[in-house]
């Protein structure tokens, strides 16, 4: 009995901790239709946060390339593209890195923060955070 209770406790704690992290798979939704247009995986490498597009839900856009991107990303496939780079943990948010918008090819400073266990706030900006745009990603179930 104690063995089963301990296993249940460990499982519950593991699930709770994992649900309270920015890491994992997130759905990006179209702002007008609220339909999922892509799935983004946020992961940690060397203590920093990164993200890449792992799924594009609209079959007509699965092979899209980043026409507007600069440098080595120009004309590269959007599927598999790293769009979030080098954010550092600063308490309850991750910041100090950049986010790429593959629709317009522009890079922005950004920070991300968990609003709740299933909602991630992404704020991209130029210069100061007050001059930017906020998007939300929703945890993929």
From TrEMBL:
Residues 24-139 form the DUF2147 domain. Residues 1-19 form the signal peptide. Keywords: Signal. Pfam families: DUF2147 (PF09917). It comes from the Bacteria. InterPro entries: DUF2147. This is DUF2147 domain-containing protein. The lineage of its organism: Bacteria, Pseudomonadati, Bacteroidota, Flavobacteriia, Flavobacteriales.
């Amino acid at each position: 009995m104690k063995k089963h209770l301990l296993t249940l406790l460990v499982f519950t704690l593991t699930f709770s901790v994992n649900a309270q992290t920015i890491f994992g798979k997130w759905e990006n939704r179209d702002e007008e239709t609220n339909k999922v247009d892509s799935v983004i995986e946020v992961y940690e490498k060397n203590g920093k946060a990164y993200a890449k597009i792992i799924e594009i839900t609209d079959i007509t856009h699965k092979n899209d390339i980043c026409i507007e991107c600069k440098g080595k990303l120009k004309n590269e496939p959007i599927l598999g593209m790293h769009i979030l780079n080098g954010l550092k943990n600063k308490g309850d948010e991750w910041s100090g890195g950049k986010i790429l918008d593959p629709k317009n090819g522009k890079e922005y400073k950004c920070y991300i923060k968990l609003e709740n266990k299933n909602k991630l706030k992404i704020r991209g900006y130029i210069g100061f955070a007050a001059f930017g745009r906020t998007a939300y990603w929703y945890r993929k179930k």
